[in-house]
Design brief:
Distance between the termini: 39 Å
Number of domains: 1
CATH superfamily: Small protein B
Oligomer: single chain
CATH topology: Small Protein B, Chain: A
CATH class: Mainly Beta
Strand order of the largest sheet: 1-8-9-2-7-5-4
Strand content: 25-35%
Number of strands: 9
CATH architecture: Beta Barrel
Order of helices and strands: HEHEHEEEEEHEEH
Number of helices: 5
Length: 168
């Protein structure tokens, strides 16, 4: 009797995952920053931008978010031109407003100003037909932190290979 609700829960979770389609990911952010807390935000976009995003013309590399005048804007997100555009067009690198709750914006203002943290877009995805962006509160890694991460990854890879060899 207890197996039934857990199966329903996993089915609902898989449906939710299917609804989320990742458009672009910022893998460099995981390498350059310690990602502490992630927020989901909507984006204020123009029609040609949404169509270009559906075609996959997005690049999140070197992008960042900034709090300006009580609102959060994302900068350097490159959304290429829509292929079937007519006279309508958009600027590829324009700052775009993020749609967040007021208390989330206050929290971001507090953490970015006092602790010297930055806001980094991690991934962009569709959720229920709407474009969402995941921004993370991040602290920059030092060079020795990056080397430590690489060293840890190599050790994990070697141990997995050794366990795999032992199992044969």
């Amino acid at each position: 009797m207890s197996a039934q609700p857990s199966r329903e829960k996993s089915e609902r979770k898989s449906e939710r995952k299917k609804a989320e389609r990742i458009i672009a990911e910022n893998r460099k952010a995981h390498h350059d920053y310690h990602l502490l807390e992630t927020f989901e935000a909507g984006l204020a976009l123009v029609g040609t931008e949404v169509k270009a995003i559906r075609e996959g013309r997005v690049n999140l590399r070197d992008s960042f978010a900034k709090v300006e005048g009580g609102e959060v804007y994302v900068h350097n997100v490159h959304i290429g031109a829509y292929s079937s555009r007519g006279y309508a067009d958009h600027e590829p690198l324009r700052p775009r407003k993020l749609l967040l709750h007021r208390q989330e914006i206050r929290k971001l203002i507090g953490k970015t100003t006092e602790r010297g943290m930055t806001l980094v877009p991690v991934r962009m995805y569709f959720k229920n037909g709407r474009v969402k962006i995941a921004i993370s509160l991040a602290k920059g890694k030092k060079d020795y932190d990056r080397r430590e991460t690489i060293k840890r990854r190599e050790i994990d890879r070697e141990t997995r290979a050794a366990v795999k060899e032992r199992g044969r």
